[in-house]
Amino acid sequence: MSSMDAKCPHNTETNCGDCRMNALCLPLALQTNEVAQLDEIIQRGRPLQKDRHIYNAGEEFKSVFAVRSGSIKSYTVSNDGQEQVTGFHLPGEIFGMDGIAHNHYTNSALAMETAAVCEIPFSRLQELSIAIPSLQNHFFQLMSKEITNDQHLITLLSKNSAEERVATLLLSISNRNLRRKLSGARFRLPMSRADIGNYLGLTVETVSRVFGRFQKQDLLKVDKKEIEVLDFDKLRALAN
Amino acid sequence: MHVIQTPDEAFQLLSGTESEFLSPLVNCSLDALFKSNSVSAPIALNLHFHEGLKSDYLQLLIKELNLYAQKFGQRKAAKTWLRGTPLNCLSAAEITEIAFLSASNFEMDEDIYSEYGFECSVADINESNLALMKGLRFTTLLLNIDAAHTPKTQQIWPLLDLIKQYKFQELQLRLNASNSDVATLHHWLESLLASHPQLIELYGLEEMSEPILLDQLTKLMSARGYTLIGDRYFVSEHHPLLRLKQSGKLQYTPWGLSHPKIKDWIGLGIGALGKIGGGYYQNTDKESEYQSNLSQDKLPVQSSGKYPNDNTTQVSALIEQLICLHQIPNPENHPLIGENPRIYEIFQQACHKGWMIEEGKNLSISSQGLNHLHEITQNLLCS
Question: Any idea where the domains of chain A sit in the sequence?
């Protein structure tokens, strides 16, 4: 059995190949006992109900998290109480890195639906790095890549037209599903139109209008939260 | 104490006036500096990276960081800077690691005078680097530019556009004019001002083929909404440093002008300069010594110094006022000047030459006087 077919020690319902954590585990060619050591520090919590917080902005940074199932929204709250969505995190993806450089979380993270996460406490990771020396460096590589990719997306989304932003978001979710060996053409949007609008800096009405336009142009089929992408080439061209 | 400044080393003084400020330092023990540090005031951290260092440099610097955390870790870091060429020397993983470790060892102060900054050069500007630094919540980008080559040669405009997309809180530009000419410098300023940086630092004016005078430059920049502070920094309207200048609360440091609440500046890395307890220290500029000291859990300090006596300290304070505020209290009201005929005479002569003018209770540097700031400070130190 190849290592990619192995069951993920973090979640027996997930194959290692689907789990973003495999970037942490497998390339290091960890021995079985080392996987067990790593598995011991990774905490698999109980399922989280919808609207349950994983952490709040301002709390001390202690861990990063990986989404096992469901979806997570990260957001900040301005001084005048306005919520700003800063990211959506899907299964296999890592979040919580916003705290890494300030020792406290700058965002809050909330389950958008029933979800399950793995928690990786940083202090324990540093302990384990003594026994597995390349682990910490590998983890920082993973972190830096995720941080860079997240920021790329945020910047991309902030500078384009409404159509370009919506198209970019849909393509991003499509690609992220493909990485998990799910369909990139048919998927469910776990977030509300309001959250999409907030994240993209658009009103709910504009988001709905754009979806409507994309349907008329045969780019998409939209049925509430269910999306089917009909024309990837046109969607990519629109995302510029 | 002789401050080492060699090319490519961590520390360079970019101003003749400022070098006078450091010239009276005499050797003292490092312990003497540590004893006089302010226990609760915020600190600043300068972590130095430059090209050609060995692969274990980061781990050594982390060790140095841990040693300082033992002494200063209870104090907040109001400024944390990655100096030199961090984006060129470190991988994305290493930058993430050092960002994490500095934040773990020192709680960050977050007010309008705080900075979480990094230096870079034109060659470092690309989407990946900017995305990483923005994602790590760096607030301030300082771009080093050599004005010897034209903006077109360095393809500066698309780079400035790219920087703008990442919306750092503050864009600072440091322009080396020493090998440039007047026309090229003007072209640079026109190009750079279009990107509305919050701060432009200009140095090497005296070394230009046709030197441009500071008062000429000040007029040019003032017409574009930038005000001179210190002897080479131009800041935009409403900049926090300008407010500090206007309220008389600005301190000079070798790393720029700053709020005086930051008392101690920790320099980490080979050749790094630090300011603690009113004095200065400098790390060894030899890689082998840096490594050897840290492997024995010793700070890699080569020299440390302070001002020798109260009189020198007071003269330095006067020079600091001149550099930072461009004015001093009227000599008739100033105890040091009143009691020192030589110093009094220096200011009298400065007034006589039109370099300083009376403005209410103060003596202020005139436009013409800006061009002679170095001379005034030299004379004060010789007094």
Answer: 16-146, 159-239
